[in-house]
Structure formats: structure tokens, C-alpha cells
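Reminder: ligand-aware prediction takes two inputs, not one.
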Amino acid sequence: FVCVKMAQRVLVADGGNKKTSRVRVAVRLRPYMSKQDDKHEGPCVRGLDSQNLEIVNWRNATETVKYHFDVFHGEDTTQEEVFLSSVKSILPNILKGQNASVFAYGPTGAGKTHTMLGSPEQPGVIPLAVEEVFNLVRATDQDEGWDYSVGMSYLEIYNEKVLDLLSQNSQDLPIREDKDKNILIPGLTHTVISSSCDFDKYFVPATLKRTTASTKLNQRSSRSHAILLIKVVRTQRPLPHRQQTGKLYLVDLAGSEDNRRTGNQGIRLKESGAINLSLFTLSKVVDALNSASGRVPYRDSKLTRLLQDSLGGSAHSVMITNIAPEYKYYFDTFSALNFAAKSKLIVNKPFTRETVAVPVLPVKRAREEQEAAAASG
Ligand code: ADP
Ligand code: MG
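Here is what comes back for the chain with adenosine-5'-diphosphate:
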């Protein structure tokens, strides 16, 4: 027992070195949908290459604003391509006792759930990652003498409450930190799974329940953060049975749209405040990590507190910012890009003929529409 303790302490010392890794930022533009564009204005965003995109400048429609990212996924990018370029390479670390997190960020309707969950025909990051974790476990070298066990937890943060999605009547659960700085949630269901099929057995009904409940309750699912945790524990066969735990968080974040602007009131305003607190804190945490500036404010919200040991530090993190090309998303796209961008540049050239012919107007209209929609909704 003493030996095991010591081994763990050595591991912690290894993982705890102060090398802070950046959060990689990818942006995914979903395809243009004419049904999201009543005025037939066409798209206001377009990709340039594998790292850059441009959006019409609302201050001056003869200009565009060009943004630069670690990766840009254009509208033709497949689910497999997103997985391959942004997620697959971090998964082997989970089997070696390291932590990682993958987030989908962006306004409601921009493709977060498509990216993370997808559909049976086009499986997203979650099913592809789970399958890959099992492939990696199967491919491990028996001679190295480790036994692997894979488990899952599934939770939701709603109104700054932590709720267990694998339990029937979940209460708000506490978030704690142990002496080795691991974050834990006492009371959260942890289910051992042996295959992707096994995973589906628990994950699919819980997701279905979450989304059907949401249509009754003001699109709750777009106002809460859905957090899937895949935990891989490996145990060395010889004494002292050294153990390492790797955690992978796969997060479908709440919509990043500005709920103050859309005029929500009462309970919904309270929800917006809570959502904004977690998302606002997440943006501060990512900023602090990527600019290597002093204190990282993990403790300021439930979401960032929960992710503290899996975001920044020695963890591997990627944020996939989802955006939509239609004008009705214009302001929310702008704010999502400003959150995600490493740099931006104003480029003096027209975006399309149409936007030059009707300068600024489409944007004004987009704002009026958003306000009208908010007033009626
Ligand atoms: P969010 O979860 O951000 O609110 P969704 O993932 O539900 O957005 O996407 C909104 C709609 O757009 C859905 O009908 C979804 O199937 C579709 N969609 C999103 N991204 C893509 C994509 N890359 N390719 C095709 N359809 C997409
Ligand atoms: Mg969604």
C-alpha cells in the first residue's frame, strides 16, 4: 500500500510540472442553409484556406475582417476530417494517465451538437472518440504488463448546478479537489464500459432524455453544458500494481448567443446570467492559458472548476468553435470569432457584389430580426 502511494506521488510530480499547454482553437463553418436566410442575402462568412476565414465588416461593407486560427474547417469538411485533425492525436495520452478536453463552442444552430454527437449516418467526435479509445486499448502491447479499464460519467451543468445524466433523480452535486489536485464529483455515477455498443447503451437513452426534456423547458439543452467524461484507468500487473488514470472530457457547451441582447426575462434571464458566467469564465480561462498570463480563474465557475485538471496545465485541450454563415447569426458569429481568434485583420475588399450594393443594411436587418424574434419568443 505504501509503495502504491509513493508511485502515485511520483506520477503527480511528473504531471505537475509547470509547462502550460495552449488550448488549440479550431473553427468549423457549417454549410449555408437557405431556410435560415429568409431574405436571400447569401452567406456573410467564407473560408479562405486551412487557417483563415473572412466575414463582412458591419462598420463598412466594402471591407471584410480576416481571422486566423490553428485550424479552419470549411463547410465541406466531413465529421471524420474534424475528428482526424482536431481530436484523434490526443487520445493516446488518455491511456498514459494524462487528461484532455474537447469543447464545442458557438451560437445555437451553428453545429455544436452535430460536431460532437452527429447522427447515425454521420457520427461526430463523441462516438468516433469512444470507438478510437477502445481500438487503442485493444492494440496495447500485452507484454508491457498493464490492464486497462474504461468507464464513463455523463453530466450537465445547468444554472450553475451539476446534474448527473446517468441517474434518475439527480441533485446538484459538489465539485471537490483531492490532495493531488485531481477534481472529483462525489456521488456522480461512474459506469464501467467494455465496448462502443456498451457505451451507446448508457449514453443514447440519457441524451434522448436530456433533449426531449429540453423542448418542454425553453430549449434547456441549448442553455446547459453537456459533459461526457471517459476515464481510462490502467493498472500494472506486477506489484505494487501502479495505477494511472486518464480523463477525457467531451463537452457540448451551451449556446454562446448573447441572451441579454435577445431580451430574455424572468427565469430565462437568470439562466442567461448563469450560462454567461460559465462561458464568460471559460473565455477568461482560455485567454489566460493562451497568453500565459498569471492567474487562471478556474474557480470562478462550475464548468471551469470541473475542468481544472483537464484544461491547460499538462492537459491536452482543443476548442472547436462552430459558426453559421447566414446573416441572422452575424453578431453571434462575430463574438464567437473574437473569442476564438489568435489575430484578426481588416481587409479592404468587397465580400460579394450584393453586400456592396446594399451596404450595412443586411446587418441592421439581422439585428432587427433578432430583436423581433426575441420579442415574439
Ligand atoms: P447547435 O448544437 O450548435 O445548436 P446543431 O448541431 O443542432 O447546432 O446544428 C443545427 C442544424 O444544422 C442541425 O440541423 C444540424 O444537423 C445542421 N448542421 C450543423 N452542422 C452541420 C454540418 N457541418 N453539415 C451539415 N449539417 C449541419
Ligand atoms: Mg445543440
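Residues 117 and 127 are 7 Å apart (CA to CA). The chain has a mean pLDDT of 84. We will return to this case in the review session.
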